[in-house]
């Protein structure tokens, strides 16, 4: 997992061939309020917008998730968003089967820690990062970029 501000994103572009495309999209798009759903797609990169009421911690932990085929870059447009996190290797209680079509696997485990993103910050979540996003007491406005592994 990597947490940083968009102004420092260039430091991470060498980590994956599609990261530059993803960060260029975030740097060049004027985000005020995003539309929900698919916003952008190019080879190996898809960006989705989320706008609406956030979740409580308990609601978010129902979708404590990770991905096998994609790396998430989650970008905070609003004032803040909290996440739960735990290393995948320490998760022992699956919550259903892996969904290949949606590339998502859920766990019933509790996070080891919580962290908060603020406006113009991002988190890069690799397949080994189990995460519970969208925790906020206000309106959530964010972009999630799926980068093929």
From TrEMBL:
Coiled coil: none annotated. PANTHER family: EVOLVED BETA-GALACTOSIDASE SUBUNIT BETA, PROTEIN YIAL. It comes from the Bacteria. GO terms for cellular component: cytosol. This is YhcH/YjgK/YiaL family protein. Pfam families: DUF386. InterPro entries: NanQ/TabA/YiaL (IPR004375), NanQ/TabA/YiaL_sf (IPR037012).
């Amino acid at each position: 997992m990597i947490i940083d501000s968009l102004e420092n994103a260039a430091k991470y572009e060498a980590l994956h061939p599609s990261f530059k495309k993803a960060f260029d999209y975030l740097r060049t798009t004027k985000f005020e309020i995003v539309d929900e759903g698919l916003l952008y797609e190019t080879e190996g990169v898809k960006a989705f917008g989320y706008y609406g009421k956030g979740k409580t911690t308990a609601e978010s932990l129902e979708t404590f998730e990770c991905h096998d085929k994609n790396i998430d870059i989650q970008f905070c447009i609003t004032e803040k968003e909290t996440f739960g996190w735990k290393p995948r290797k320490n998760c022992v209680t699956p919550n259903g089967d892996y969904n290949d079509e949606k590339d998502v696997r859920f766990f019933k485990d509790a996070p080891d820690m919580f962290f908060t993103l603020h406006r113009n910050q991002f988190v890069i979540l690799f397949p080994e990062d189990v995460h519970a996003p969208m925790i906020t007491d206000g309106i959530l406005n964010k972009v999630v970029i799926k980068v093929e592994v």
